[in-house]
Design brief:
The protein is an alpha+beta fold. About 35% of the residues lie in helices and about 25% in strands. It contains twelve helices and 16 strands. The chain starts with a strand and ends with a helix.
């Protein structure tokens, strides 16, 4: 028995700190998110081109993985060619994560750091691996998962559509079950709220549209530093029709924009409401922590302990900050330009950054080859002269592979 999509929802939001939304998405029958890069005049164009190609589909046949790979590579080709023709869009690119439901499988095609998740029996599982510098450092054992959460270059991706003529696509299929919910999202969501929080919101909300609203609201409440896009869909067993197939295909329009999925969902909601009491209102998507159990101790001991802890923290933070002023590393700024930073590539609690921008080049990260970019942005501690020399070579186009490794 095949599976069908019985409910879906999609939502994109500019966030709290960006002026333009460079994300785009597709919501049925193929599902996808795309997170553009290169500025509003380029990133938005790149992500729109990607979702346009995916929405148009691919009728050449083959497995779902093969079709997704062909479509994503076609989107890459179009973005790359436009960037080559139009200098104002040089270096533009986009991530993309797309999913197709076929038979009893959900197939995923993926490039970049947008993600695909599956929620099953209240548990959330990530189905994709981020193509990002920080994720690769974690996978290679050079960085811990805890350190990665606050790493200043965690948004630097090592694979995207557009920067190069060819792109490697991760494509894989996953066995699905009745009731599974799938989430595709840009890093504007996962960079703001944790996976346990995402799972809690999915459990607490009723419809998928309510879940999408709550997820975006929670990301904004946590700072909303980037554009936020979520796409959700739920699968169920396909009921047999007279010939053993569903009497209506999931994307078929039956009346003035009403699709078979819409009709089925309405009927199911009506049936549920006839036999069950109304569901409780969804809980607000607010980040909460369990209250700590207070220990019984006298007031003066508690105050002394707090003062001692603050003194130790001050000494440690002060020492780290002073030490950080003696070293430099190469990274990128919020606009994606190669930048020389003074300090250590870490953030401390309470928002204390151990680095400041010393020099910002005119070279966008998207214009640097992926392999070279990976080596250049390894956050190796350097002297100021070494860092300036690397960036000047990059600006002149004379940086070689060996020099990037030094």
């Amino acid at each position: 028995m095949a599976l069908r999509v019985v409910e879906h929802a999609g939502l994109s939001d500019v966030g709290m700190q960006r002026e333009a939304n460079e994300d785009n998405f597709v919501c049925g029958p193929l599902f996808a998110v795309a997170d553009g890069m290169g500025g509003a005049q380029a990133g938005e164009v790149a992500s729109q081109m990607a979702v346009d190609v995916l929405a148009a589909g691919d009728g050449e046949g083959g497995t779902p993985e093969e079709r997704l790979t062909r479509m994503i590579r076609e989107a890459n080709r179009k973005i790359y060619e436009l960037a080559a023709r139009d200098q104002s869009r040089a270096g533009m690119g986009t991530t993309t994560t797309a999913a197709i439901v076929e038979g009893r499988n959900v197939s995923v095609g993926h490039v970049g750091d947008s993600r695909a998740y599956r929620a099953r029996d209240g548990e959330l599982e990530q189905l994709t691996h981020d193509h990002s510098l920080v994720a690769e450092l974690v996978r290679s054992g050079q960085l811990t998962a805890a350190a990665a959460e606050n790493h200043p270059q965690r948004s630097i991706i090592t694979r995207a559509l557009g920067p190069e003529a060819e792109v490697e696509v991760d494509a894989h299929s996953h066995s699905a079950r009745d009731g599974d919910v799938y989430l595709l999202c840009s890093d504007g969501l996962t960079g703001m709220i944790s996976e346990p929080e995402i799972a809690g919101i999915l459990r607490a909300t009723g419809s998928l549209q309510e879940a999408a609203d709550a997820l975006v609201r929670a990301a904004n409440q946590s700072g909303g530093k980037d554009n936020i896009t979520v796409v959700l869909f739920r699968v169920e067993d396909e009921p047999d029709g007279p010939s053993g197939e569903s009497p209506l295909s999931s994307g078929e329009t039956i009346h003035q924009g009403l699709t078979a999925d819409d009709l089925r969902t309405a009927v199911q909601e009506q049936e549920r409401s006839a036999v069950a009491s109304p569901p409780p209102p969804p809980r607000a998507a607010v980040r909460r922590r369990a209250p700590a159990t207070p220990k019984r101790r006298s007031g003066w001991r508690r105050a002394a302990g707090v003062m001692a802890a603050l003194a130790v923290a001050t000494v440690i933070c002060g020492g780290l900050y002073l030490g950080a002023r003696q070293v430099y590393f190469v990274g990128t700024d919020e606009a994606g330009l190669i930048t020389l930073y003074r300090g250590l590539p870490y953030e401390m609690p309470l928002g204390l950054e151990l680095y400041t921008a010393d020099y910002t080049s005119s070279v966008p990260a998207g214009a640097v080859g992926v392999g070279r970019l990976d080596r250049l942005l390894d956050h190796e501690w350097r002297t100021r002269g070494d860092g300036e020399d690397l960036i000047r070579q990059l600006e002149r186009g004379t940086l070689d592979e060996g020099r990037a490794r030094e």
